[in-house]
Amino acid sequence: MWALRGLRNGVLTTRWPASPDAYTAATRGAVTVLPGPAADTIDGTEASALCPAGAIRAGLAGTVRVDQGGCIMCGRCVTARPDVFGWSAGPGSPSLSRQGLVVPAAETAESLAEVTSRLRARTRALRRSVHLRHVDAGSDGSEEWEIMALLNPVYDIHRLGMFFTASPRHADILLVTGAGARGMAEPLRETYQAMPDPKVVIAVGTDAVTGGLARGSYATSGGIGGILPVDVWLPGSPPSPFAILSALLLAVDRLPGQRAATAAGHGVAGDPR
Amino acid sequence: MTVTRYEVVASVEQLSDRAAGQVAAGARLADLFGTARDGGLLLTAQLAGPASLATVAAMLPPWQLSYPALTPRVGAAFWYEREIHDLFGVEPAGHPRLEPLVLPASGGQLPRPGAAGGPAVIDPDPGVLPRHTIGPGLFTIPHGPVRSGVTESIEYLVETPGEDIPHLNMRLFYKHRGIEKRFEGMHPADGVLLAERVEGVASVAHGLAYCQALEALADTAVPWRAALIRTLHAELERIACHLDVMIRLADGAGLAVATARFGWHKERVLRLTGQLSGSRFGRGVAVPGGVGREPGLPPADLLTAVGVLDRELTADVRLLLGTASFLDRLRRTGPLPPARAAQHGALGPVGRASGTADDARESRPYAAYQALGLAVSARDDGDALARLEVRADEIGASFHLLRQAADELAEAGHGPLRADWQVADGRTVSWAEAPHGELLYDLRIEDGVITRCRVRPASFHNLVLMHEVFAGDILTDFPFIEASFGLPVAGAAR
Predict the structure, then answer these.
(1) For residue A72, what is the nearest residue in chain B, using CA coordinates?
(2) Alpha carbon of B86: minimum distance to chain A alpha carbons (Å)
(3) What are chain B's domains?
């Protein structure tokens, strides 16, 4: 009897974001640059040798920056230079601007505040009930698993008023995975155009943000940014279900501690609001 | 010990004779691919027999733009020759249906894997694809590439008079990523990262097969503990993939509780993988020479976790296989006759459900499989139910392997996880039994960089069989048939 089987293990669902979930700290976030003077010791040659995805750059001023949008989470830099690089813990680090994924931040508080308020104005009507549509634009298949996981009883996004819909005409948020395969550019545009306004686009995963390791191939466009206007950038290879959840909540301005997290995660001083 | 042979024959005609002869003698065509070389196009066929893998290659000189197709003699070459035509532009003369498959292009440069350099951009042109139906009174339902639910992009053109599906066409090119070409020029140690992303849900199998190629070239022996850890992760990955199929089947039948239960089990398998390796998909487990890190759990705790999972999961699998309303949807749905499966050399659970019991873990063992006990499960019915039953058996077998590997790991104590490995030039073939079936890598390294990396996932080999399994099935059977094949599109389209 399936009905009884459903009761066997009690409630399995996380209470995040209402209360903390230990697993969010157990999963790896993207790589970040640790504060300290050691970061200055890395030059351009070492930076490119450290990262097979080309996500580490040594700036002119001797400052090392990690583009989390290009980070494939292989961890080589953390192993080689634990004094400079570390894993950021927590449920991932979605950002409302592409530049916001570059740490430590070079962006000014004003521009992020501007992006935030624009998105907030646009998504005001969506906050309570949101319908999602997913399109694969050349993923490796793992991102789909992590999005699917949101429907399992552990994450159960229905409790947050979020539902997947079959038709783009009913969708508010478009989750796009994959490196922007050229064959998918047109179907992706058509799906986007079929969605009613207001609509939000989330680039799910490093591949969708920059193309990841598939960047530079004749068959991909290095992320989906060149195909659609992206509102939320979510790195990860693949991003964990909690990370996808946090990107969804960020998109509709329901991520608790959003302002604080944005400030801490991107080194932006003060309240961007 | 598995025998691998590499032989270059004088002409493509000889290659064709050799392949046809070996297939007639019981071998199966496991791969057929091209490599652009200075002297022309090197065509390579992999012929798998019991416990052996013969590689036969022949050079097609640059002035020859066509060769006699192998497909009329060996049916399994059907998609492979279309792929060669897409990527290199040479024409297999006499091919029954030479339409674009992975890359419909309208003139211009072609990718030509193996050649130095290559086009920066190729935009696929779906306009060159014919749209036709096979008979009067039929119409085509284009199903994809954007479909309902969270799925990978592929287009199925379902030709139907209303209910039946007399014919199906598949279009893979939408998510073609040019992965094989992307490998070229990479440092071999970086290549494993890309290999793990060919099919993200089978990262461990891909990482393993790729690293085994490097290790074969450099003659590196992997430490015993590393072999055990690789095996552990490969089996966890198999359980997760098979659970994914069960979720999709249960979801298709509207079994909400079963869908939720299997979703929960799968989540726990991914979390266990994450706890052991740092990645929910086991990325970074396989590195050239061994494994990346110590498992995050001691063997005793791993055994406990595996025991809990096994108990709870197996009870649900048993209930699923006893749910009559569910089984009715699968029984005699999407049948693949054993004779056809054998003729094509169907791989993985799809092949084993149709009586083709080849399993690389047993016939050509790698990692720690030689030392561990494995019972290969097979059925003869060939329908969606048989494919589910094979997967259920394999989950049981994987738990058995996990326990053995964890026990061995506890006994092995401490020791190195990684042998000293250096890049070595050469060309070799390697394999792993991914959850979806046998996976082949044919890797060529010259001057310390990758110059050709052929990846042949089971999905590419098996997906073509979906053409043939709709005997008497109707539109509502489609999701069950697709889910019961359970093949990642990412690998098939590459």
Answers:
(1) B193
(2) 13
(3) 1-115 (3.30.460.80), 179-481 (1.10.645.10)
